[in-house]
């Protein structure tokens, strides 16, 4: 078997962990989390995102970054967190809130008791100024989320609990 086939087989057989990123409107930070997790070089994550009161569309700056990461544009949509509480929804391993509002809201019941954490970031969609200022704010959030996902990928995920997941926040 060729080396490239061998490495692909290893990646395919590795357990992947579902991460649901939550933010109130599911248009910016949580969408970036979904795209970053799904395109993470470790191959360990499948990202999802949702909000308590989803917006009508994904913020164009978040969509631009997600597409640059190689995330399919067809998956970019603002979703209600109710979708992930349904019986046929993917089982989540981790639930991460990325905005302070969502962290304080009463969340639905998540089947399987996933580990939870809050990785708060300022809302880049609230930044005033030029498109370049706004783009920079989104990139800052992307860099912060990527650092935390890199740390998470290096942890023993099969034994991770909510307390350990919260430590990722303090190390970044």
From TrEMBL:
- Coiled-coil annotation reads none
- Report the InterPro entries cross-referenced here: Ptyr_pPase, Ptyr_pPase_sf
Which SMART domains does the record match to this protein?
LMWPc
Respond yes or no to whether keyword Oxidoreductase is given for this record.
no
Which Pfam families does the entry mention? Answer: LMWPc (PF01451)
The keyword Cell inner membrane is assigned to this record: no
Keywords attached to this Swiss-Prot or TrEMBL record, sorted alphabetically, are: Arsenical resistance
Phosphotyrosine protein phosphatase I domain sequence ranges: 17-155
Task: Give the record's GO biological process terms.
Answer: response to arsenic-containing substance
Instruction: Return the protein name.
Output: Protein-tyrosine-phosphatase
């Amino acid at each position: 078997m060729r080396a490239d086939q061998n490495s692909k087989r290893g990646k395919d057989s590795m357990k992947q962990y579902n991460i649901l990123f939550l933010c109130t409107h599911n248009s910016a930070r949580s969408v970036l989390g979904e795209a970053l997790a799904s395109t993470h070089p470790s191959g360990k994550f499948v990202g999802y995102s949702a909000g308590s009161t989803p917006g009508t569309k994904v913020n164009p700056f978040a969509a631009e970054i997600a597409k640059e990461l190689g995330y399919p544009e067809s998956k970019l949509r603002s979703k209600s967190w109710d979708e992930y509480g349904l019986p046929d929804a993917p089982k989540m391993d981790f639930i991460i809130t990325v905005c302070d509002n969502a962290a304080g809201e009463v969340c639905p019941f998540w089947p399987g008791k996933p580990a939870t954490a809050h990785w708060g970031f300022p809302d880049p969609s609230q930044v005033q100024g030029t498109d370049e200022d706004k783009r920079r704010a989104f990139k800052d959030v992307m860099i912060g989320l990527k650092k935390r996902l890199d740390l998470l990928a290096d942890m023993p995920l099969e034994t991770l609990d909510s307390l350990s997941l919260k430590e990722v926040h303090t190390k970044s």
